[in-house]
Amino acid sequence: xxxxxxxxxxxxxxxxxxxxxxxxxxxxxxxxxxxxxxxxxxxxxxxxxxxxxxxxxxxxxxxxxxxxxxxxxxxxxxxxxxxxxxxxxxxxxxxxxxxxxxxxxxxxxxxxxxxxxxxxxxxxxxxxxxxxxxxxxxxxxxxxxxxxxxxxxxxxxxxxxxxxxxxxxxxxxxxxxxxxxxxxxxxxxxxxxxxxxxxxxxxxxxxxxxxxxxxxxxxxxxxxxxxxxxxxxxxxxxxxxxxxxxxxxxxxxxxxxxxxxxxxxxxxxxxxxxxxxxxxxxxxxxx
Length: 287
Description:
Layout: E1 4-8, H1 12-26, H2 37-44, E2 48-54, E3 60-71, E4 74-84, H3 93-107, E5 112-117, H4 122-131, E6 135-140, E7 160-166, H5 170-176, E8 184-185, E9 194-199, E10 206-209, E11 218-223, H6 227-233, H7 235-254, E12 257-266, E13 278-286
Parallel strand pairs: 4-5, 8-12, 9-11
Antiparallel strand pairs: 1-2, 2-3, 3-4, 5-7, 6-7, 9-10, 11-13, 12-13
Helix pairs in contact: 6-7
């Protein structure tokens, strides 16, 4: 995006602006904000704070914050937040900030960055796995407590998965160099076994689930194309999806599977709680 500069944030005035963006994007109350006083400390201790600024106005329209970490025996960064003002979302700002964060990490000898995300939010899953090349091997139930002040996830707890971004991995390097990153559209017949899916063509539509088998090498799990919309239209189905997805994913990770991309197939349902022209699935493979 032209006219946007990505650079380090070093002033407390800009740290305060980051807090304002948190409130705007996630509708947090003060108790759930990551306080500005930590930004300087994270940077001083070897982390990273980057902002996205408009050229002429020098307006802060996005930021990313990473703290020093030690993951699986590897010195790492843990990226607590990636925020983009709603007026600038879907325009490549988040992508550019992750590129800059990766470059800064490599300069300091860091080879892995982790962060958490809600796996039922399809847009985030696509960005993290397909666009950036991260993978997921662990599930954290109520990572930030049983609820929060944000309307985005306050009604269903704060279950998250941990994205692992290995910065030197060939797949990551290829994506950073411009490899195709669209969600691959597949015919339904080419999907691996589906262990979680919405069954609409029954007298009683339901969410069908079965546990993974150690004999499988690949399988997939369906997620809603618009989980935020589902939260508003059918909270009971949203809760059931969270519960069944959690059980299946935790079981799969305990067997050594990893989640590494998102695919879509043409949808057939034109009405009901999951009305959409596409259906969205995670692919899991044995490590």
